[in-house]
Amino acid sequence: MLAPLDPTPSLRMPTPADSRLPNPRSIAFIGGGNMARSLIGALIRGGARAGSIAVAEPNAELRDALARDFGVAVHDAARTAAQGADVLVLAVKPQVLKTVCTDLAKVAAASRPLVISIAAGIRIEQLRAWFDTDLPIVRAMPNTPALIGAGATGLIANDSTSAEQRAQAEAILGAAGRTVWIEREELMDTVTALSGSGPAYFFLLVEALEEAAVAQGLPREAARALATQTCLGAGRMLVEDGESPARLRERVTSPGGTTAAALDAFAAGDLRGLVAAAVDAATRRGRELSEQYS
Ligand SMILES: NC(=O)C1=CN([C@@H]2O[C@H](COP(=O)(O)OP(=O)(O)OC[C@H]3O[C@@H](n4cnc5c(N)ncnc54)[C@H](O)[C@@H]3O)[C@@H](O)[C@H]2O)C=CC1
Ligand SMILES: O=C(O)[C@@H]1CCC=N1
Known about the structure:
Number of helices: 13
Helix content: 40-55%
Number of domains: 2
Bound molecules: 1,4-dihydronicotinamide adenine dinucleotide, (2S)-3,4-dihydro-2H-pyrrole-2-carboxylic acid
């Protein structure tokens, strides 16, 4: 596994003291799949007490792995895990979220937890209607690099969320990387299309680079190592150098040189237009998801 990036003002790893600051007494994760596991791992590494975290996960293998790897309390039913929790993190697929919320409505009405949903496309108003009560709700869109503490998360809160609860949400998601607050909820679909799905775009680019080099005769292992390390190097420069992406690109591009030849080929294929179309498709899919499950 990669070591966390060097701390920078813009992408600083939270210290154990940070995660203790807003101090939720207990967090219940509803759903213990990929994203929950990434967030739980980040919280534990950041100094959260395993005893303050409960997880509801119907899959016994995933449940056992979470208990073994992180020492958190595991349950097969959402209601048992959610009982008395200060914070509920909804980490199930959008398709099952309505059932989960209606199932938890009574427990939530009694203890009024901060609800954090990471489900793609599902609106705060839909969550409020499914819980059938006015709860503090934060909608968050993290991404899979959360697994190594290099996540990027967009956040938005409803008016019932106090400043302390906003800080709690920021500390929980911030344990896994960088957080950015969004002011208008419709832009969460853009965040999902940009950073939620975004890691897949970079993986695809690395796959394509590897294939292109293999097609020219480079051994696959060498092609993958060089493409992967180039992606890491470019990513770290973007975070650590402080220069704009355009300036960093210009620094690589000698006039009349090899990079200029490649960039001309990208422009001829309208790479920017293609990226805009891809982000647009993901944004529209986020909207469709919310309409589908309302
Ligand atoms: N995978 C990604 O890159 C990202 C995913 N998301 C969102 O995170 C959410 C979870 O995604 P993943 O972790 O990738 O999915 P996942 O499928 O790995 O995890 C969901 C888990 O929920 C469990 N589950 C199903 N019904 C349940 C119930 N009634 N109570 C408790 N648990 C239940 C499933 O057994 C599964 O393990 C989704 O809503 C997705 O939109 C958000 C950002 C990025
Ligand atoms: O593909 C998806 O729907 C989820 C949301 C963002 C990343 N994965």
